[in-house]
């Protein structure tokens, strides 16, 4: 364990700006009105099961899964459904939402609100299928940002065999500290969550990958997992994008996931975020569906940045006001961190299942600098964690040479933004690659459909 | 003498070897070309204007022959030669004559800077595709023209330009060959190929906003709010309203222009009609004055 | 509340910029410039100043009146760098009008005709130098002896170590090599016996300090300089072992423009390959070509030509040498 591990290709180390590392989490006040977008996850949007005027409680299902890869949505507040309408969500477009007017705080019965730690040993009745079913029913999705339904990951395709579960506690994005606070405040639950995930995936190896800039969390979790020899806490060198699934698998178990369509389980790993592990614990042990999460609200110019336990559906405006309001001047509001977050066009976008952070970037950092010509310095090539040539992909995409970019593995791009971060000419490399990637994915889909 | 002999023999030998190599290459690497391509190309005007969307007449001829082999030459059209030439080509290739009316690209967005307030600032790659992926763009309208000119870049004929005053793409009808490149380039599907119409006269709904009326109104003063007034006005059943946006079927439209007057937001646009006679001008201003009561009706809705 | 700004991710950017890299290289060149002033005096300053000023002037002129671009590329430091590197590749007694001609070819022909910054195929400074070398062979191969601080055009000249090496090979007489200064003198550059070479190449140590600075600031990676120097060292070492008319490898590596070329000219961003693997291939090929030209070509120095030849191969290397893709090992 002397050599601190990390992934093997590329990577950068952006300025961390973890302003809220030691700010204790507080529960955010209930919003006046909660907005629930119907697609908070990857896959088919959920289908509403309530109608205008219905009374809902905290934890009432308001929309059911709309397909296999989909997840139900639960109300995080009690009150009346005002309307089923469209509102701007994190994509920047108006999408279908359910809007609930908040009245009181009445919870569904059956949700265990006590703090008592339930261990796996105390519940021998739990079966792997039962855990997967509970996770599915509770609408748990990946809490790290992408929002892939968790139960799908726990049921690998028959061609692959899971060997271990890796908990992603890397939090390599600058600014964000919600996972760190969760670890510091709910370490026991996370370990039980991991044990549940391992049981559900029928594996007997578990890892928790944490970057070394969180020594307290490493010490705390190492202490907590002592009792279970199957679980190992793996300290990792600070490096972006270590929180990317493929990079994390490479860093922790030294296996590289092949090019898409391969997924981590093809090399035996199931990767879950710490937030997800916590949500799994709550879903299985406390019968509490996913309707609240830890979210960091941060920004250099915010008066009081902090970490909050937020009911989903809370508009970001209310969280920002809690932190002292939007700074003067033009700002960039991000759902997520500065490397992979989405810039929002409205402060009324609600917090969703994947919103790990609300980041406000101000002043000169909010605007991009004008692009200079590419000087072919090759820095983008050396930082690309997927071993691609971003300069080439960007240029060929801009010139719409789809065959060329496909041959150059554009679909492997994980859109981490390292290339654009490092580019001395401030070129919009990732903007171009993203365009090319979506085109090529479309072409590949069309080709597969023809076959 | 020797010198001359050596020179002649040497050069002769080089010539012989080279010619053999050339002969072998020309036989071995010969490209067999379909004879029909040449025949079709001869029928075409040979202006090599590129109006068909191919690089010159040979390109179109090639595409026509390939299309004929595949069973259809639909979509291939020489705008210069027109119906006459295409008829001859179809005869030659043994295909049915494809009836093609002259078309023109139409940008269906009214969201000028004056109509659509800018609510955000975009600071990234200035292409419509990137801006579209980023969200609604600089305005609250998630359907309207982004004004970054992906269509301009796609147009090979310089027929589209983004008007710096309105921030919206505009089509130069004279240059447009209706090749459809801009239609494919627009990430929001705003551009449509429509019948050019008699004397270039046509009426269309210049908006594709599918938001509900009040939301669309808030985003853009000239948005189609899907109120259906035009549909009621139309006597030819040419207008359909779906997803909160009206569409005028060019096949049924008789260019009566009643719908244009009925539209409370002026989202319906008519082009190339003669300027209104002085007598009718007061009527037009009355139409403009009518906007307000209409809006009230909208609010009640 | 002000407007919200939107763009696609990433929303953060590192501190790197074109200026930072260009001025970084210029700073790395300063030790060599100072040393050259110490050895050549006023002549080195006049040559470098003339070269920098004329390069910047031509860049501005062409941008303003030929390309009609309103972007001020003069400030990014690339023209200053080209000028400085061109000056470093010239003898310190070269008349100004020749330098201006060289700058015109470097900026006008080698850089701007291809489209300016980032688009050139060949290293502009080297194109300028090679143009002058073939156009004015007499002026370009008369090397002032070090230590004449006050003289410029009238400086005394002498034979460089490289020409001694060439003579040894041509005559097959290894004793000529005894006139070579020892390695320490070559490293420091205070070779009092003969001509010292161009302004930039006089002191290998100063150039190595520049290399260390650039590596520290992460302006370049080690791949190109190390592969060139190692290749030259190994190949000329083998030759020396086989036949002592070939000079010993330490002298070969430290003399002439090898250090300058390997550290500053071959590592030029625009004209070198993009992948580390490609950079190693490029470096080894430059090393081999340099040894070939030095020992069997008609010029005593082969670095410039070797780099220019490999510049031409850079697009080919970029096409065929790909970085190791993530997960590639497992696929096979």
TrEMBL record, chain B:
Region (Hydrophobic): 1-26
Segments forming a coiled coil: none
Region (Disordered): 281-301
GO MF assignments: 4 iron, 4 sulfur cluster binding; electron transfer activity; metal ion binding
Lineage top rank: taxon: Bacteria
PROSITE patterns, A to Z: 4FE4S, 4FE4S_FER_1, 4FE4S_FER_2
Compartments (UniProt record): Cell membrane
Binding site residues for [4Fe-4S] cluster 3: 155, 176, 179, 182
Binding of [4Fe-4S] cluster 2, residues: 141, 145, 148, 151, 186
GO biological process, one term: electron transport chain
EC number: 7.-.-.-
Main localization, broad class: membrane
The protein's required cofactors: [4Fe-4S] cluster
Alphabetical UniProt keywords: 4Fe-4S, Cell membrane, Electron transport, Iron, Iron-sulfur, Membrane, Metal-binding, Repeat, Translocase, Transport
InterPro entries for this protein: 4Fe-4S_dom, 4Fe4S_Fe-S-bd, 4Fe4S_Fe_S_CS, 4Fe4S_Ferredoxin_RnfB, Elect_transpt_cplx_RnfB/RsxB
One annotated Gene Ontology cellular component of this protein: plasma membrane
4Fe-4S ferredoxin-type domain segment(s): 145-165, 167-196, 213-243, 244-273
Binding positions for [4Fe-4S] cluster 1 per the UniProt entry: 49, 52, 57, 78
Subunit-structure text: The complex is composed of six subunits: RnfA, RnfB, RnfC, RnfD, RnfE and RnfG.
Function text: Part of a membrane-bound complex that couples electron transfer with translocation of ions across the membrane.
Record-linked NCBIfam families: PRK07118.1-3
The name this protein goes by in its record: Ion-translocating oxidoreductase complex subunit B
Organism: Marseilla massiliensis
Source organism phylogeny: Bacteria, Pseudomonadati, Bacteroidota, Bacteroidia, Bacteroidales
Gene, per the UniProt record: rnfB
From TrEMBL, chain C:
Cofactor requirement: FMN
Record keywords: Cell membrane, Electron transport, Flavoprotein, FMN, Membrane, Phosphoprotein, Translocase, Transmembrane, Transmembrane helix, Transport
Keyword Cytoplasm part of the UniProt annotation: no
EC number: 7.-.-.-
Domain of life: Bacteria
GO CC terms: plasma membrane
GO biological process, one term: transmembrane transport
InterPro entries the UniProt entry points to: NqrB/RnfD, RnfD_bac
Membrane topology, record value: Multi-pass membrane protein
Transmembrane segments: 21-38, 96-114, 126-146, 192-215, 222-243, 249-267, 279-297, 303-321
Biological function: Part of a membrane-bound complex that couples electron transfer with translocation of ions across the membrane.
Subunit structure: The complex is composed of six subunits: RnfA, RnfB, RnfC, RnfD, RnfE and RnfG.
HAMAP family: RsxD_RnfD
Record protein name field: Ion-translocating oxidoreductase complex subunit D
């Amino acid at each position: 364990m002397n050599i601190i591990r990390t992934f093997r290709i590329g990577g950068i180390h952006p300025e961390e700006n973890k302003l809220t590392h030691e700010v204790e989490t507080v529960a955010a006040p209930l919003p006046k009105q909660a907005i629930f977008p119907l697609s908070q996850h990857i896959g088919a949007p959920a289908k509403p099961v309530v109608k205008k005027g219905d009374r809902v409680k905290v934890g009432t299902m308001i929309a059911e899964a709309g397909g296999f890869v989909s997840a139900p949505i639960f109300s995080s507040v009690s009150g009346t459904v005002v309307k089923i309408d469209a509102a701007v969500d994190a994509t920047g477009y108006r999408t279908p939402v359910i809007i609930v007017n908040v009245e009181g705080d009445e919870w569904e019965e059956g949700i265990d609100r006590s703090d008592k730690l339930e261990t796996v040993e105390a519940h021998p009745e739990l079966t792997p299928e039962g855990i997967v079913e509970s996770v599915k029913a509770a609408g748990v999705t990946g809490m790290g940002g992408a929002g892939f339904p968790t139960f799908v990951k726990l049921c690998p395709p028959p061609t692959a065999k899971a060997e271990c579960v890796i908990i992603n506690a890397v939090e390599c994005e600058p600014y964000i500290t919600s996972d760190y606070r969760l670890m510091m405040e709910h370490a026991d639950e996370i370990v039980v969550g991991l044990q549940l995930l391992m049981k559900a995936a029928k594996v007997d190896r578990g890892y928790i990958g944490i970057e070394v800039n969180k020594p307290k969390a490493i010490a705390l979790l190492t202490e907590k997992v002592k009792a279970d020899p199957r679980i190992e806490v793996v300290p990792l060198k600070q490096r972006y994008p270590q929180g990317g699934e493929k990079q994390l698998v490479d860093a922790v178990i030294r296996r590289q996931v092949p090019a898409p369509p391969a997924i981590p389980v093809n090399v035996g790993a199931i990767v879950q975020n710490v937030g997800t592990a916590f949500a799994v614990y709550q879903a299985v042990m406390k019968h509490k569906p996913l309707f609240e999460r830890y979210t960091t609200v941060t920004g250099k110019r915010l008066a009081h940045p902090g970490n909050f336990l937020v009911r989903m559906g809370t508009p970001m405006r209310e969280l920002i006001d809690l932190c002292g309001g939007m700074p003067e001047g033009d700002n960039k509001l991000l759902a997520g961190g500065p490397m992979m977050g989405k810039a929002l066009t409205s402060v009324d976008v609600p917090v969703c299942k994947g919103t790990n952070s609300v980041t406000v970037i101000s002043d000169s950092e909010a605007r991009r600098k004008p692009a200079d010509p590419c000087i072919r310095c090759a820095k983008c090539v050396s930082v690309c964690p997927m071993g691609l040539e971003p300069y080439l992909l960007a240029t060929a995409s801009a010139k719409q040479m789809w065959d060329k970019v496909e041959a150059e593995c554009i679909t492997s791009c994980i859109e981490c933004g390292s290339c654009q971060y490092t580019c001395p000419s401030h070129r919009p490399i990732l903007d171009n690659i993203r365009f090319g990637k979506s085109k090529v994915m479309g072409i590949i889909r069309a080709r597969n459909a023809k076959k | 003498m020797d010198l001359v002999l050596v020179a002649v023999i040497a050069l002769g030998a080089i010539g012989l070897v080279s010619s053999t190599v050339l002969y072998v290459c020309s036989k071995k690497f010969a490209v067999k070309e379909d004879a029909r391509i040449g025949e079709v190309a001869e029928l075409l005007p040979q202006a090599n204007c590129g109006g068909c969307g191919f690089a010159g007449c040979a390109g179109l001829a090639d595409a026509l022959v390939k299309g004929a082999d595949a069973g259809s030459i639909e979509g291939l059209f020489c705008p210069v030669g027109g119906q006459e030439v295409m008829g001859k080509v179809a005869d030659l290739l043994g295909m049915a004559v494809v009836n093609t009316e002259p078309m023109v690209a139409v940008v269906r967005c009214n969201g000028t800077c004056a109509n659509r307030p800018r609510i955000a600032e975009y600071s990234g790659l200035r292409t419509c595709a990137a801006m579209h992926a980023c969200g609604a763009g600089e305005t609250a309208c998630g359907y309207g023209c982004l004004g970054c000119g992906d269509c301009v870049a796609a147009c090979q004929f310089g027929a589209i330009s983004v008007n710096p005053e309105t921030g919206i793409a505009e089509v130069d009808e004279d240059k447009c060959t209706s090749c459809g490149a801009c239609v494919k380039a627009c990430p929001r599907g705003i551009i449509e190929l429509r019948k050019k119409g008699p004397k270039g006269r046509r009426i269309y709904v210049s908006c594709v906003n599918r938001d509900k009326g009040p939301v669309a109104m808030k985003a853009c003063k000239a948005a189609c709010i899907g109120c259906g007034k035009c549909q009621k006005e139309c006597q030819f059943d040419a207008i359909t309203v779906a997803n909160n946006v009206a569409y005028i079927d060019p096949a049924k439209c008789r260019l009566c222009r009643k719908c244009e007057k009925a539209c409370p937001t002026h989202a319906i646009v008519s082009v190339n009609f003669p300027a209104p006679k002085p007598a009718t001008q007061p009527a037009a201003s009355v139409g403009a004055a009518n906007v307000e009561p209409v809006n009230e009706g909208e609010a009640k809705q | 509340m002000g407007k919200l700004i939107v763009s696609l991710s990433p929303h953060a950017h590192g501190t790197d910029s074109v200026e930072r890299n260009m001025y970084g290289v210029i700073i790395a060149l300063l030790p060599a410039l100072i040393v050259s002033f110490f050895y050549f005096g006023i002549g080195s300053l006049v040559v470098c100043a003339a070269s920098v000023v004329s390069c910047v002037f031509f860049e501005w002129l062409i941008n303003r009146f030929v390309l009609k671009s309103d972007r001020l590329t003069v400030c990014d430091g690339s023209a200053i760098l080209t000028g400085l590197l061109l000056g470093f590749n010239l003898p310190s007694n070269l008349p100004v009008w020749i330098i201006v001609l060289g700058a015109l070819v470097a900026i006008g022909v080698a850089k701007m005709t291809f489209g300016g910054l980032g688009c050139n195929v060949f290293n502009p400074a080297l194109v300028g130098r090679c143009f002058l070398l073939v156009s004015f062979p007499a002026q370009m191969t008369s090397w002032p002896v070090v230590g004449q601080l006050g003289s410029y055009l009238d400086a005394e000249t002498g034979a460089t170590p490289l020409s001694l090496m060439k003579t040894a090979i041509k005559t097959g007489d290894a004793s000529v090599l005894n006139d070579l200064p020892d390695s320490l003198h070559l490293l420091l550059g205070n070779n009092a016996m003969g001509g010292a070479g161009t302004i930039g190449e006089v002191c290998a140590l100063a150039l190595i300090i520049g290399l260390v600075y650039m590596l520290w600031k992460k302006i370049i990676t080690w791949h190109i300089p190390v592969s060139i120097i190692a290749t030259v060292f190994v190949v000329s070492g083998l030759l020396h072992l086989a036949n002592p008319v070939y000079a010993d490898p330490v002298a070969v590596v430290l003399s002439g423009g090898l250090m300058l070329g390997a550290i500053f000219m071959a590592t030029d961003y625009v004209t070198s390959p993009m992948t580390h693997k490609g950079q190693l291939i490029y470096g080894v090929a430059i090393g081999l070509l340099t040894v070939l030209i030095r020992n069997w070509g008609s010029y005593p120095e082969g670095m410039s030509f070797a780099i220019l030849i490999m510049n031409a191969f850079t697009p080919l290397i970029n096409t065929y040498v790909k970085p190791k893709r993530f997960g590639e090992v497992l696929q096979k």
